Amino acid sequence: MNPRRDMRNGRVALFDGIEEGGIRASSSYSHEIDEHENERAMEGLQDRVNLLKRLSGDIHEEVDSHNRMLDRMGNDMDASRGILSGTMDKFKMVFETKSSRRMFTLVASFVVIFLVIYYLTK
Length: 122
Description:
Helix content: over 70%
Shape: rod-shaped
Number of strands: 2
Distance between the termini: 124 Å
Strand order of the largest sheet: 1-2
Structural class: mainly alpha
Largest sheet: 2 strands, antiparallel
């Protein structure tokens, strides 16, 4: 055997994996690193998915709460509309007679005079 060739093979074996600009990892080591990075990335994605799932659940609860509140408000508005309608009907009946109009004019005049005096003395 050629000692020079043996030395060259030894040097190649010694510096196997070293390339210009750095060290090249062996394929099995590189595969392990890739798997580890993939596992970390999957854990990160799982955490994000769980966070989004909780957020969407919270949003759903909030929307349901607002829908219930809006339904209650709608029912209250309907009830108020009914009461106001009844009041307006009674008010119309009062103004249909002449004596009621005179009474309203008298009461309204009294209220206006009272307010004017109140603000002038203040």
